[in-house]
């Protein structure tokens, strides 16, 4: 039996067949056998049968060989069917997994895109808010600098006014004191003579000398006017001092208010900066999420295409192999049927085939 199988698998003869036949009943068998010659397995089977018949092998051995070949082909087809079924399951499973990956990646891209839009707007808003608060802080600092400079100028002006006014009041008091001690009704000539002696070196003394020519009534009137001037100057100085005190209090209150506003703005800016940092980090994460999802989508889509192409290739190969195997099974069955019913015709055909 092994010898028969080896002979079948080893023979690869590709001879042309040219057989002359008359119009006899075996013509249909000959035509059928000629058709088998067009198939590689058919040629090998006929070569093997011819060899076995020449070697006087029992017909049962030939029939058993054909049966074994046919059963092997049927078994191979069954195994191929099982493998094809498993391949289809594997293809469906893997493509399903690819589709799940594609769906998940697509959803990730959609969600991350929406998050990016929201966070980008938030980052832009917070960035502007931080800049606005910094501008407000700069304005406050500038205002504080200006009011401090103005306060310093006002304080210096008040100090000058205070010193000058005090000096004037003191001078008026001295004049009043001196005028109160003079004797009125002095001779004009004597007074002028004395003024000439005094000259411009001592204006108060000169004034006293002039006043000494006044009558008692005139002198009292002058003293009264000087007293009013002194009082008015003292009142003006006191009012100026009160105004300066209030200005200093207002300045200090304004500085405190600016400091409070600065503290509040600084805290608000720091809070906005923290929110900006948090949102920027979240934005970066969403961008990375979208980038990773895009890579995953591309990988899953590419993997799916490759798997679909691979599965299509398997299906094509399975269909071709199955068709080829069915053809071989059909040929074996035809040979079995012919050998079982038309053995004599086969022998004649093989003899003519060998001599052709």
TrEMBL record:
Residues 102-150 form a coiled coil. Keywords: Coiled coil, Signal. Residues 1-16 form the signal peptide. Residues 284-326 are annotated as: Disordered. Residues 304-313 have a biased composition (Basic and acidic residues). This is Trichocyst matrix protein.
